[in-house]
Amino acid sequence: MVIDQIHDIQQVYRKVLHSMSRPGSISKLNHITEKIEDDFTCNHAFFLCALTVLDAEVTFHVVASEEKKDRLKEILSSYTMSRIAPVDKADFILLLQDAPEYQMEQALLECKTGNLLDPQLSATWLIESDLLSNNAELSLSGPGINGIQQLQTGINQRFWLRRNEKVKEYPLGIDLILADFLSQIACIPRTTSVITMEVD
């Protein structure tokens, strides 16, 4: 890997902050991901975001097929010094596209949402998604959005129904960072209302 662990990761961090403050807007990381030469069992934008949010002070949990899970945990622990934790204790939930659906749903049920005194003690999800675009799959509204923002992720409706249940008692909830194979990212914080659209 030839990315600059300081300069490039700071750029990714700024992109994530920009996307989190403008839910549903899509940012591109291809000028950084093109520097990555290794295979990390996940897409490169996802890996860069993981490097950005993980460090020795936080914990993470991987939801993926057994084939990919152990390798990703080993790589991320080595690169970031972050510790692996059970899903109900983890600060970050890393969801790969090949994760079994029942594992995804179980993780959504069990993950942290914070508490009224410390709502920030919640899980942030990093999700490997299909191609992100501003087409009609999800209709987003709320802070940081002028009217309605559309977002297509390829993630099934059951996920969004479960997610909406997790954010009903604001300020409790979860925040999402989505990363696709074209080095694009988008964010959906807990403050965003998500309605799934019927697509013909």
Number of individual domains: 1
Look at the structure and name the CATH superfamily.
Answer: Bacterial phosphonate metabolism protein PhnH
Mean pLDDT: 94
As residue ranges, the low-confidence spans are: none
How would you classify the helix and strand content by structural class?
A: alpha/beta
Q: Name the overall outline.
A: globular
Give the CATH class: Alpha Beta
State the helical fraction.
Answer: 25-40%
Beginning-to-end CA distance, first to last residue:
42 Å
Describe the protein's topology.
Layout: H1 7-21, E1 27-28, H2 30-33, H3 44-53, E2 59-63, H4 66-80, E3 83-84, E4 92-95, H5 101-110, E5 124-128, E6 133-141, E7 149-152, H6 157-166, E8 175-179, E9 184-188, E10 193-196
Parallel strand pairs: 2-3, 2-4, 4-5, 5-8
Antiparallel strand pairs: 1-9, 6-7, 6-10, 8-9
Helix pairs in contact: 1-3, 5-6
Please tell me about this protein's structure.
The protein is an alpha/beta fold and 200 residues long. The protein has one domain (7-196): Bacterial phosphonate metabolism protein PhnH (Rossmann fold, 3-Layer(aba) Sandwich), CATH 3.40.50.11310. The protein has helices at 7-21, 30-33, 44-53, 66-80, 101-110, 157-166, and strands at residues 27-28, 59-63, 83-84, 92-95, 124-128, 133-141, 149-152, 175-179, 184-188, 193-196. Helix 1 (7-21) crosses helix 3 and helix 5 (101-110) runs parallel beside helix 6 (157-166). The chain is globular and about 40 Å long. The mean pLDDT is 94.
